[in-house]
Write a structure and sequence with these properties.
Layout (H helix, E strand, L loop, with lengths): L2 H23 L54 E7 L8 E10 L4 E14 L4 E9 L11 E6 L4 H6 L4 E9 L5 E10 L8 E4 L4 E10 L3
Antiparallel strand pairs: 1-9, 2-7, 3-6, 3-8, 3-9, 4-5, 4-7
């Protein structure tokens, strides 16, 4: 090539470059096809912790709670006693017939008492006799006395003077409000209010018994 030819080609290249630069500057060049999507980048490292936030506002005042005390109770153990007599044959009309001492183990319990034995009353005019329990010398007050009565109406003096029937009878009930410890349980015989008493008999020719049992109070 001659020097003149090389100079001409160099000028043409410069010209083309300038033309393309001008086309790019004035957005006149054609855009090529889009390339393929690149891969996802790796996760970045955790940032430094932020500063603590301000304390929140106080909540509304709650309702007053209830104080609950858990109570552990031991299983209830049976506690009973029997006093028995063969042919008691007690003929008093007023007074204590017999007694049976019992150990009450709980303050919040009741005593069930039972007398079973023969009772008899006879008289020539109308009469009434009352058999009842006492606890340490006093009749039951909670809820009521424990008693049984026999009443004979007035009939002919001849008939009433000969009637003499002995029947096995029971006097039974529950008594509450008795203190813990020894309890003297006694069976008595007495009058029925204003009615006259007759000729009473208790425990004739048979076995008489007093049964005492401690029971839990119902809830």
């Amino acid at each position: 090539r001659t020097l003149a030819r090389l100079a001409t080609e160099e000028n043409e290249v410069v010209c083309i470059a300038r033309h393309c630069l001008q086309d790019t500057q004035y957005s006149s060049c054609h855009q090529g096809p889009a390339g393929t999507t690149g891969r996802d980048g790796n996760p970045g490292v955790n940032g430094i912790p932020g500063i603590p936030g301000l304390p929140g506002r106080d909540g509304a005042k709650g309702e007053k709670g209830e104080c609950v005390t858990e109570r552990f109770e031991e299983p209830w153990k049976p506690n009973f006693k029997q006093c028995a007599w063969n042919s008691l044959n007690y003929g008093i009309d007023l007074g204590k017939i017999t007694e049976c001492t019992f150990t009450k183990q709980h303050a919040d319990s009741a005593l069930r008492v039972l007398f079973s034995g023969s009772l008899r009353l006879k008289c020539k005019t109308a009469c009434c006799q009352r058999w009842y329990f006492t606890f340490n010398g006093a009749e039951c007050a909670a809820p009521l006395p424990i008693e049984s009565i026999i009443y004979l109406d007035q009939g002919s003096p001849e008939f009433n003077s000969t009637i003499n029937i002995h029947r096995t009878t029971s006097v039974e009930g529950l008594c509450e409000g008795l203190r813990k410890g020894l309890v003297d349980v006694a069976l008595w015989v007495g009058t029925c209010g204003d009615y006259p008493h007759g000729d009473a008999s208790t425990g004739w020719n048979s076995v008489s018994r007093v049964i005492i049992e401690e029971l839990p109070l119902s809830s």
